[in-house]
Amino acid sequence: KSGYVGSKYVFYDEKLRSSVLKEQELAGEMIAALEGGQFVPYFQPQYRYATGRMIGAEVLARWNHPAKGLLGPTEFIPVFERNGLIATFDYYMWEQACRCLRMWIDGRGVEGAPRLSVNLSRADIYRSDLCTYLKGLVERYDVPAELLHLEITESAYMEAPEQLIGAVTKLRAAGFVVEMDDFGSGYSSLNTLKDVPVDVLKLDMGFLGASASSRGGLILASVVRMARWLDLPLIAEGVETKQQAAYLASVGCDYMQGYLFSKPVDRETFEKLLEGTAVE
Ligand code: C2E
Ligand code: CA
Ligand code: CA
Ligand code: CA
Fold first, then answer.
1. Three-state DSSP class for residue 278
2. Where does the EAL domain start and stop, copy by copy (predicted)?
3. Coil, helix or strand at residue 83
4. Is 10's pLDDT higher than 70?
5. What is the DSSP code string of 37-60?
6. Of 15, 53, 179, 193, which is most buried by a Cβ count within 10 Å?
7. Within a 10 A sphere around the Cβ of 107, how many other Cβ atoms?
8. What is the largest CA-CA distance in the chain?
9. Ligand 1, residues 42, 46, 47, 60: which to mutate, most atoms within 8 A of Cβ?
């Protein structure tokens, strides 16, 4: 139409076409995959650095695809967000989390059960039945709400802040612990922090890097200090090296999650980790 028929344009066109096809194929498989239990929770432990005690774990979704193997969430979460199934999917993951909590409470007592952080997507926050659903879920599994931590990514805080503040306030009143995920990744972090009453901050090391001499290191130290002033626990995630961990600890960050300690692992592997660690 435009007169551009150069191979470059044809190439991009083909690429786009094949990614659309790939997405349609995945989208078509998703409902059956949900019903067939192909989506599984993986667990990435979080530790108090000073003692090495586990404080909890983040639940991260994986798709055990019969043909493609284990797929990570970046391959299917965006598809769920576009095809409108994300709330169904997230509800499913939260239920898996509650099911595990129930088992661990039965096996280890409530004191020995790790708290679990689940991820919420932007669309979940704006559903009017979010809090009712979550309350019903923890009641059904007879799990204390404070063991289920809700991670809300910072980018979800951009639109409709009043609605978000309302949702977070309601969730906290119901006993859930609300964590601001990816703190510092966007432009609105400080503004959001000022207005939204969260309980915990999660800071991704990928955004800053950490060495004492770099500007990133100085910013990191200031963020840790700010969190302490605000009396908000801060979990550094994406901690990959001993140097990063030591630096974080030296500036007063108590809690860490990352490949240095453990990758996200399946339930059986996580339960073995649990056996070997004290949980606080
Ligand atoms: P996130 O919530 O920021 O989760 C942290 C991501 O960092 C995870 O990627 C984790 O595997 C990865 N990670 C952990 N430690 C390290 C490290 O030391 N270095 C590096 N480079 N990466 C590390 P993953 O599992 O691929 O998940 C990606 C994103 O998908 C998550 O980012 C989260 O936003 C989303 N997600 C995962 N599960 C769910 C879910 O059930 N529902 C929703 N709505 N989103 C989910
Ligand atoms: Ca998260
Ligand atoms: Ca994060
Ligand atoms: Ca992230």
1. coil
2. 23-278
3. helix
4. no
5. T-EEEEEEEEEETTTTEEEEEEEE
6. 179
7. 11
8. 70
9. 60
pLDDT of residue 60: 98
Nearest-angstrom CA–CA distance, 42 and 264? 6
Q: Which amino acid is at 216?
A: G
Cβ of 117 less than 6 Å from ligand 1: no
Whose tokens are 């009712």? That residue is: 132
As given in the structure block, the two tokens for residue 125 are 């926050």
Q: Is residue 96 within 6 Å of ligand 1 at its C-beta?
A: no
Q: Any idea how long the chain is?
A: 280
Q: pLDDT tens digit string along 222-279?
A: 999 999 999 999 999 999 999 999 999 999 999 999 999 999 999 999 999 999 888 9
41-100 tens-digit pLDDT: 999 999 999 999 999 999 999 999 999 999 999 999 999 999 889 999 999 999 999 999
